[in-house]
Design brief:
The protein is of the alpha/beta class. The chain is 47% helix and 11% strand. Strand 4, helix 8 and strand 5 form a beta-alpha-beta unit. The model has no long low-confidence stretch (mean pLDDT 97).
Length: 231
């Protein structure tokens, strides 16, 4: 069993790591397009996700001025509405906030609660300030502090986002543990000198054979045990 020592602060990615983003977005699409079958829902979800990823990448590459996730989600919702053929403004507006109503994974709430008894626990998310506030409330996520990348007007894996977490933690990077289900996120944290722990999720981005993260876990329970020694 892995044992993790010399960590002062634990930082969690949120979307995909602690909440099931695809399931929440699917629920929002089904609500907006109640007659849709699963194939159509999958198509509309893929459209939403591709758009969001592309726009965040364009911002990171300097090809678009910074826009927070609330703006990008509104644009994605309009794309979905156009593809699905509905125009009702309240329905489009409701769909645009689907990313604020994501369900937590089964071990997320208990894992955060256990770790918060032993460490300062931070959330570090690309979600906009307001979206993150509502997401935390909906999912029941309890933090010592939740940090939005909107503060530095960038998106992970931009280095300034991880620096935001390090500045908040107030200790050496190698005393800060970044936990995520996305290898691309952990690579960004690793480049800033943070320790890294990959937690497997069905919707994550698994490590490749070239990745050298400090720890890998099948779930939050294993992480908690490694950090706290709890059985």
């Amino acid at each position: 069993m892995a044992v993790i020592r010399d960590i002062e602060v634990v930082v969690f990615d949120v979307l995909g790591t602690l909440v099931d983003e695809p399931s929440g977005l699917r629920a929002g699409i089904r609500e907006a397009v109640p007659a849709s079958d699963e194939a159509q829902v999958d198509e509309l979800l893929a459209l939403w996700q591709r758009y969001g990823e592309r726009e965040q990448q364009r911002i990171g590459q300097g090809n678009r001025a910074y826009a927070n996730t609330s703006v990008i989600d509104a644009e994605a919702a309009q794309l979905v509405a156009t593809r699905a053929g509905f125009t009702d403004p309240p329905t489009v507006a409701r769909l645009a906030t689907a990313g604020q109503r994501l369900p937590p994974w089964g071990d997320s709430l208990a894992g955060l609660q256990q770790l918060s008894r032993h460490f300062p626990v931070l959330g570090l998310s690309n979600a906009a300030h307001t979206a993150l506030l509502r997401l935390n409330t909906h999912a029941g996520l309890r933090w010592h502090q939740a940090l939005s990348a909107e503060t530095v007007r960038a998106y992970k894996p931009a280095p300034e986002v991880y620096q935001l977490a390090l500045d908040t933690a107030g200790c050496a990077p190698d005393r800060v543990l970044m936990v995520a289900a996305h290898a691309w996120d952990l690579r960004g944290a690793q480049a800033k000198g943070m320790r890294t722990a990959y937690v497997h999720r069905p919707v994550g981005d698994p490590p490749t054979s070239r990745d050298t993260f400090d720890w890998r876990f099948d779930g939050l329970g294993e992480l908690v045990t490694a950090l706290t020694g709890a059985e």
